[in-house]
């Protein structure tokens, strides 16, 4: 009897052990899945300098009154120098502090009648495509143009001209109190 009990205990131990042991190569429950990895490589060698953050223009009432709606009356500009950006595709966005009723026009403070507005365009000797028209204008509401602006510098010191096109908006009479006008916009140059 002792012998039968001894064999029964050994047999029970072996059976219990086989239940708790997994076969080699079996996955541990909950220990498999998918990891999504993403990243962004930035080109820290590309930089920009601006020659002036101020643009100014002077107009007389007769020039404004005689201009057709949409006519460009002044075009002050600033030059951005893009350094070590040769061959890197870039784009630009502009956000006016006072956008007009359409995405392309910014308005000026001090113009209560809304007779003047502005558009912003980019140009260079080569490498600028897209935007709107020959001036490669971009929306001033921060959105992308229907034909996105593309800037591909062809030199490590690349001059990019950013022009503010002051234009006649509508056909309202020029008010007698029209004098000092101010406005501003924020520009951003990004990698494509």
Automatic annotation (TrEMBL):
InterPro entries in UniProt: Adhesion_dom_fimbrial_sf, Adhesion_dom_sf
GO process terms (BP): cell adhesion
Entry keywords, A to Z: Signal
The keyword DNA damage appears for this protein: no
SUPFAM superfamilies linked: Bacterial adhesins (SSF49401)
A GO cellular component annotation in the UniProt record: pilus
Signal sequence, start to end: 1-22
Designated name of the protein: Type 1 fimbrial protein
Species the sequence originates in: Salmonella enterica
